Amino acid sequence: MPSSPTKKTPVKFARRTSSGHVVSLSRDEDVDVAGEFISSGGPNDYANYTVHMPPTPDNQPYNAAAAGVSGGPSCKPDDLPAPPYRKRATRLSKDEGDFVGGGGGGDASGKLDRRVSVMKSPNNKSMLLRSQTSDFDHNRWLFETKGTYGIGNAFWSKDEVEYDEEGEPMRMTDFLEKPWKPLTRKVQVSPGILSPYRLLVVVRLVFLILFLSWRVRNPNPDAMWLWGLSIVCEIWFAFSWLLDQLPKLNPINRVADLAALREKFDMPSPTNPLGRSDLPGLDVFISTADPEKEPPLVTGNTILSILATEYPVEKLSVYVSDDGGALLTFEAMSEAASFAQVWVPFCRKHNIEPRNPDSYFGIKRDPTKNKKLPDFVKDRRWIKREYDEFKVRINGLPDAIRRRSEVLNARERKLARQRSGGEEGSTAAAVDSKSPPAATWMADSTHWPGTWAAPSPDHSKGDHAGILQVMINTPHHEPVYGFPGEHPYLDFTGIDTRLPMFGYVSREKRPGYDHNKKAGAMNAMVRASAILSNGPFILNFDCDHYIYNSFAIREGMCYMMDRGGDRVCYVQFPQRFEGIDPSDRYANHNTVFFDGNMRALDGLQGPMYVGTGCLFRRYALYGFNPPRANEYTGLYGQNKRPAPPPPEPPNSGSLGEEAQSMATHPDLITPIKFGNSKMFIDSIAVAEFQGRPLADHPGIKNGRPPGALLEPRPTLDAATLAEAVSVISCWLVRLSMQFHRLLSTESFIEQLACRYEDKSEWGERIGWIYGSVTEDVVTGYRMHNRGWRSIYCITKRDAFRGTAPINLTDRLHQVLRWATGSVEIFFSRNNAFLASSRLKFLQRISYLNVGIYPFTSIFLLTYCFLPALSLFSGTFIVQTLNMTFLIYLFLITTTLILLSLLEVKWSGIALEEWWRNEQFWAIGGTSAHLAAVLQGLLKVIAGIEISFTLTSKSANEDEDDIYADLYLVKWTSLFIPPLTIIVVNLVAMVIGVSRTVYSEIPQWSKLLGGLFFSFWVLAHMYPFAKGLMGRRGRTPTIIWVWAGIVSITVSLLWISINPPDGSPTDVNNGQNMMSPTVKSALDYGMRAKAKESPWTELHWESEVWHTAESEESSSAGIYQVGDILMMQAHYLWDILRGRCLRTSQDRAVILWRPMSYESSICKVKGMVMDFHWRFRHEVEGGDKDEWTNVVEKEKGKVDSQLQRRCMQKRGEFHATDV
């Protein structure tokens, strides 16, 4: 109850200064507060008080009278005006103690009672004061009095209603509408990395130009052939490096916003009140061809990961293409569809990653990490057992099919014999001729329409009917949740148990038709899926690539649905691989390409299509032009302008098409020949509309309205399935004889016996492009050539993963197929030289490099043999290792290393991965690329078709060592070139060292140059040699022993055939005693006109000097050789000094004056050696004392050898005299 009035208590706790700040005041200053708020208590109870709010925009007193409130008190002079958006303000009056609001009377008093209830508390001691500072507690006051913060999306009073400029009421929901957000954004590479990277590219290019010009201007006269080969190879390497480097100048990164995608397409909105998904439909393709090399279990795991991905179930359709038509694959897919009924809900319930069961159960980390449901362990244990049984069933399918077929074939043969035995006059031969073929039977005891184990007509790999089987029907458009007791062991209550549509497709094949391998199979799936589901987007996988990140498809869809996404033809994901050896010996991860080159292309017109893990726009795959495109003209595409609208398709006749072809680039012609399926043609416009981005922003062009894709898909019927079968068939009809007689016109027969693709543009402008074993690159090139752009989507968690061959033979065959396709591209109209003006300049350079890079193998193979040839011949690619050559070599190598470090920085690859890529570039370039060039030339010149071997994707069966295939050596002819390079360089190194060590005047600089480059070659070939040696530690010792014996034998044999320079093996051949420098002077000395001759009588005549055969003439030959050496030394020195004149004499005869052995040897010592080292000192530099000591040592060596040789010929040699 209220207390009796007491004496006024003098209090004053706060004051506002002129600047608007509120400060605490002393208790000694008095403030008289009177009114009904007087209560009993201690000295801290206050009867009256004044509240001064801080001058914030939301809490300021105002003049109630000015606001039109009757009876409102006047404001103090320092009161601030009310904010323009406030209609109601509150203030306590020190005079009346009344709460003044927007109205008066009883309402005001009631609100006062509610808002100042704290004041009426029996014990309100210090209720509005902070306990420590005695300051006014504004937060407490706002809470107790329900004071307002104003209006906005943080707080909005329910009692207050504001109006906008048009008089419409404003509510808090107006502020809750978030602004438009893009689905993706670009993340530029740091300028601190990219700018030095671009600068280094320019600097290295300048160094290369200077180096090559210096090499051209400074030939090696000692070995012109070696210099010529090396300079040609180096020029090509510089050109190839430039082609590879230019497209890397603008790398970028991209980030997708999955939360924004969910808000736009999956959350309730005015256009989507039920919150259904407004995302477009998606068709996923998986291709397989041979169940032996591509095991069905691998394909089944891929299917399971796709069925369980995080994408609207009703919008997802999955198709597997079995181009082999095998019953094993068909029944394995049926088993996978059955196991998916428990695997997919299990993944959704427990958020399993990855959703490939084989990969999930094979992870080494703790499976219970971040799992919170109590039944997870029980569910996982049961699912693991079900998956093990699923694998056993798959592994047992071949035997089950074989046993089933044997039993049913035996029954058929028995019935045939019974029918034939009842006929009169039947013989054993007749019975055998009527015996049914050995068929392959399905589980329902019917013939399999595809390929049989025992090939027969209509049932072989190249001759079988088309098959289309929908194994999981189109799901309901509303979620179907599980309920308790639905499954005996698993509880899927509240979990959506629907599965996406799943179909098996095997196109018809007939003899005499070119079915175009994988490209033809993909086009068949495009047509079949257009009839069945017609998803505006297509995602294709190889059978061994599975979804590792269940949200990856949504990230790819962000780029398609974002602003400007209508110009994106495909989104390419990087390929990641499992099962690779830790050292990645053969660069199977290929990170330099996927994280370097492809990321850089994303900054241009987009990455290339690499065959798998690619999200396509169906409309772009049909060969249409983008809604908007640009043209790039000028020398390097510096002029950009909007492309004109696509040309109208010709009305009829070939004349209109030819005129259109002449008026524009062939790739820009609008396709019109899609086949004779009206249902398929009608689906094109639907797919184009459904693939448009959401038109929820003025900047989005060519969009669709929100909510346009909420309608459920129609269910499949018999007519739709029949139409889908017809578009994958060859339409080859075998007519009965009577029907053939009735309708035997040629036109009717031709119409029945043609394929669906005949007289259409499939494979030419529509779908996957035919004519190359690398149909993926050609297909992507055609889209870019029309003006489309592509996106490279690198997710934080790997999007997809697959397998790669770790065996050397399989890896080389894979590279051979890629390189062969590149050679085909170079010799076709898909060459980038013939591209349209819609292709950017640097994008054109990248596609040009795709067609040119295999030809580098010719120059690479030659260059790998040059070090060995240099060591064999004792020469080098340059005349001397002078300072200029070494400086250029240092600068070029240093800039390459710096470029590699910066590329590693912006691409995220490791240095080891970069080095492995360089090594395998040399291995593949000298083997697979060279074979690809030869095959491509044979196809162009001789018309020989190219065949390739399907890469095996079967898992390793060795459980003890998962990398057992790495050490398996399977011989192939591709091993010959790199193996030859290794052996020749090893032998050349031994011979070069032996030649130099045993040479009288060793050429150490040339030896070091040859050894360095031979070591460079062998370092690149190390993974190849390691692959040939097999498992570590198991190389037989005899291999090393024989390798050493062969190398020593070959080196000694080479020395005996071509002895080192300066060894006097034959006195009759005076040139063998000459050093290389003196040899080079022979031509000059023999053709020089001497001004003075201090030692012999010299006559120039047109005769040939000869060597004597007798002992005396042999000694004279010694004199002759000595005089020739002296003459060479003297005249070459004069030539260098400019004191000799050349003449036109070609041959000479020297008339000799009798000399003693001593004088000859003395002249050799005094002239030849002194000249040689003087020449070296003048030309190459060096310390005078050092070369003087060397001269004296070499003089003694030459003196002893010449004396020994001369005394041997004269018979005066004795061992005691040496």
Index terms:
about 1200 residues; alpha+beta; 8-stranded mixed beta sheet; 3-stranded mixed beta sheet; 35 helices; 25 strands; disordered C terminus
Shape: globular
Largest sheet: 8 strands, mixed
What ranges have pLDDT less than 50 throughout 5 or more consecutive residues? 1-13, 25-49, 56-126, 650-659, 732-754, 1061-1123, 1130-1165, 1206-1218
- Total number of β-strand segments? 25
Query: What percentage of amino acids are in beta strands?
Result: 5-15%
Task: Give the neighbour order of strands across the main sheet.
Answer: 11-12-8-7-13-17-15-20
How many helices does DSSP assign?
A: 35
**Roughly how many Å apart are the termini?**
140 Å
The class by helix and strand makeup works out as: alpha+beta
Mean of all residue-level pLDDT scores: 75
Radius of gyration: 45 Å
- Give the % helix: 40-55%
Subcellular location: Golgi apparatus membrane
Membrane topology: Multi-pass membrane protein
Main location: Golgi
InterPro entries: Cellulose_synth, Nucleotide-diphossugar_trans
